[in-house]
Amino acid sequence: MAQTQSAEWQPPAGLLPKTFLHGYATASYQVEGAHDKDGRGPSVWDDMCRVPGQIADGSSGDDACNSYYMTDVDVPLLKSLGVNAYRFSISWSRLIPQGGKDDPINPAGIAYYNKLIDALLAHGITPFVTLFHWDLPSGLEKRYRGWTSRNVLDDFQNYVRLCFKEFGDRVKNWITLNEPICVVMFSSLGLKPDWDHEKDFYPIAHHLILAHAQTVDIYRREFKPEQKGIIGITLNCDWCEPIDDSPAAKQAAQRRMDQSLGWVSVFTHLGHYPKSIEDKAPKFTEDEWKLIKGSSEFFGLNSYSTLYTNGESDPDDHLGGNTRAVRKKDGVHIGNEGHLEWLCDVPWGFGKLLAYINEKYMLPNDIPLIVTEQGFAVKNEHLKPLPELLKDTERIDYYRGYLKALTEAISKGMRCDGYMAWSFIDNFEWKEGYIPAFGAVHVDRKNGEWTRTPKDSTKWLKSFWDRVVEA
Ligand code: PNW
């Protein structure tokens, strides 16, 4: 087993420079709570959680991890875990409760993020800020069906300008959108009775890409000369391994890679579509292409798993939804299974993905990789008593294998400037509610105090970075 072999592995001491950013990630709706406090407006996820049957455990992000009120606990805790960076996202409807460009701004929302940013900096932690991690203001969904409408572009421009203006003096690392492909997919879930999958998919993808490109353009022209930060997009991709040697399985795996990276990164980094989706993709004007190409200053990657891909699905499926499996036909399992059906511990798959991304997207564009999310929800961790779940050896095995793959790729010359583990704390895992636990820190949601208790993996990660990053 890969796990046993890598258990004896010693990470290379001093491989990475002091400037390498390492830490944990979260997202506003998943951790903040305080959903109706201090003037915050509702987001589409508040609405989603109110539709019966949408969230596995019937929960919501109403209180989430109470992070809105716990900056004074969380930031010193992060410091004690040895990080030098923290990735979080800004809630659009906390800053502009109704979302639109002519709608009022909420000063309490600005004050909250100022407090968080200042506390991080005071503890020597670099803020890494996502502008959009899925929580679109409900107001905009009601007004014009959100991302399906081109109107969203003006409202997004107004929102990001506000963020750069208010926070850009101290925030030097920006992510425009988190996993745009998931925004497209989640937009299709339950929320909208009038959703037409085939019809709405392409406009949503189109507007997300334009929103990203326009945001980068605004930053570069209006803010970057003075603020001197970097800006990019985060994409999710899990490696797709063909289930056998058949041409159909190989094509299906390639098609799925193109669907997950191609929709956005090919736009962003290369300026053209992958062949397999060329005919169906929305068309941009010449001027739009100019904005889109080269509009990411790093390759932000969220990657968790690897599954086998077979060729039994419809090649025209616009979601790349060919069937995936955790076992080959001979019954051999791909890797230790986590709590979600798509989540397996497959370090060799991550290694293959790194080589693929490096060659295809990073090298031609001379941009570094930043791993913006990676992590593991241990199966049934939520059912274990606290002392037992804190001994999260499966999560440690996972990080050991994946970080071994990463350091090997770096030793072979791949440029990587940062790594954020998902997640800092157990949090609201969208449609799955609070059942899967991705946190390196446990959160007690029952005692009324949201008490944080670090799991053993935090110690492993700390000693890993202590060794690998130059003192
Ligand atoms: C990411 N999939 O989403 C998100 O950025 C996080 O907010 C989330 O909590 C984390 O991964 C863990 O799931 C994904 O079905 C959600 O393959 C689903 C998938 C991938 C990523």
Automatic annotation (TrEMBL):
Record flagged with keyword Hydrolase: yes
Alphabetical list of SUPFAM superfamilies matching this protein: (Trans)glycosidases (SSF51445)
Entry keywords, A to Z: Glycosidase, Hydrolase
Domain of life: Eukaryota
GO biological process, one term: carbohydrate metabolic process
GO molecular function annotation: beta-glucosidase activity
Keyword presence, Methyltransferase: no
Family statement: Belongs to the glycosyl hydrolase 1 family.
Name of the protein in its database record: Beta-glucosidase
Organism, as annotated: Filobasidium floriforme
